[in-house]
Fold this sequence. Notes:
Blueprint: H1 4-9, H2 19-38, H3 45-52, E1 61-62, E2 66-68, E3 74-76, E4 81-82, E5 86-89, E6 94-96, E7 101-102, E8 107-109, E9 111-112, H4 117-122, E10 125-126, E11 129-131, E12 136-137, E13 142-143, E14 148-149, E15 154-155, E16 160-161, E17 169-172, E18 177-181
Parallel strand pairs: 1-4, 2-5, 3-6, 4-7, 5-8, 6-11, 7-12, 8-13, 11-14, 12-15, 13-16, 15-17
Antiparallel strand pairs: 9-10, 17-18
Helix pairs in contact: 2-3
Amino acid sequence: MKTEKEKMMAGEPYDAHGKELIEVRTRVKRILHKLNVTEYYTDKFQETINELCPNSAKNIHLEPPFHCDYGENIYAAENVFVNFGAVILDGAKVTIGKGTLLAPGVHIYTSRHPLGIKERRLWEDCKPVNIGEECWIGGHATICPGVNIGDRAVIGAGAVVTKDIPADTLAVGNPAKVVKKLN
């Protein structure tokens, strides 16, 4: 029988309020406190980032305040920069390609909740998000569960990305639509 965490990682319905997941999120909140409050201006800042995101490149930069659910499901490549106010709900894998930049206030969600109230009280599920290499995600953009963004794509400020965005394109609006081919 699968644990709730195993169900979550498999994209299956799971109970986010089970003891195991609450314990993991509590541990992560302690690390986030170090990142956002006590270690920001110290020589332990990068070490704290690497503790929070052990599956990311060692030079990932997270500008505080930063928030996530698990950290271990964030797979950021080399030279990824995440500006302040970012939120990554990483119940599923979030992949961010090398050299990608996230502007202030970007939110990336993997969690989905049922529309029906009875089901919503019992479970949620997660779908992975993949952001390609050398992308620019504009301020306060929202990336929804299951979205794939191609290499070198630019997402305009305030966009709500609900569907895949091809490489080398500019997407803007709510919902985000491709308005221009780049490069």
